[in-house]
Amino acid sequence: NAASPTPTPTVIAAVALPTVTPTASSQESPTATTMPAVSAANTVLSNTFPAPLYYLNVEGQIMRLAANRSTLTQISDEPSGITDYDHSQVHGRFVWVSNNQLWEYDPANNQRLLKSEGGALTYASHYKEAANRIHALHYSPDGTTIAYLQGANVMLISSGVTEAGNTQEIMTAVPFQESQPNAADVREYREITWLPSSRQLVATTALWEGSTYTLYNLDSGTSTEFSPFLCCGLAWSQQEQTLFVTHNLYGASDLYRVDPSTAVGQKIFASENAGGEVPNMQQFTAPIVGDDGQLYALGTVTNSYRALSSVYRFNPTAVEWERVSQAEIDPIG
Fold this sequence. Notes:
Blueprint: E1 10-14, E2 53-56, E3 62-65, E4 71-74, E5 84-87, E6 94-98, E7 101-106, E8 111-117, E9 134-139, E10 145-150, E11 153-158, E12 168-171, E13 188-194, E14 200-206, E15 211-217, E16 222-225, E17 234-237, E18 242-249, E19 252-258, E20 265-269, E21 281-289, E22 295-302, E23 306-315, E24 320-323, E25 328-331
Antiparallel strand pairs: 1-4, 2-3, 3-4, 5-6, 6-7, 7-8, 9-10, 10-11, 11-12, 13-14, 14-15, 15-16, 17-18, 18-19, 19-20, 21-22, 22-23, 23-24, 23-25
């Protein structure tokens, strides 16, 4: 497998894109009453990217658009196309799935290696997802380990193109059994997020009703579900070395701080719309910690006629969300 032919990436297009000239309207700052003033420098579109852009083209091949926005390079040449991939900025290697096989490719020496065989796709009667499909690939931040899903199970394998490495199943899904109902035990893993240490990861965990997160520690080999069950928005704070979760369930929209050493959550903001009966129900989703170390989220206020969506910043001193962007009105339904 190591000797499998792999094409040398070649420049397949070099197109001079038009220079972007900012218009007067693009440099106008919002009024102080609706959103914070933005300097003109932040509104000018650059003629370069901060880093190369990778994507799959319509033929299922990995493409690289250089930071100059004009040099397009084809990275892969898989006859069956690629269904999922990841790229590590640490060592520059790629991991991808083709024909339900997991491959790793090193462009530095034009070498690729078959890491794992998923086999022909198989389906159970209660699954829409193939029980053995390889997907959701993620290099660890230090580039040493690859985490991925096979069906609804979480797998680990060491990275490198000199040897395949040993595949380890670290979280095993418990599917629903029609012959013997086991709703309380059902667990299916859907998404994977590495923590910056590369020694812990978090998997989104689908339950019979709702979902939560499961924390896995590579050093101890143990997995722990968040306590209490929390969903459905996760963000890591490097400054505070903690996880934040926006918890939206049954109309409530609370904010939790989760200790990564124990997976135990502490509620730091309590919603007032539990049960969803409040006319102006407010929910916070898609949390992210900004470069300033502060927590932001998309807040949506919903009533019978419309939904107002804005960016909010959490104020830990006042223990409240503060709107920092102009609201957008979207019709419901």
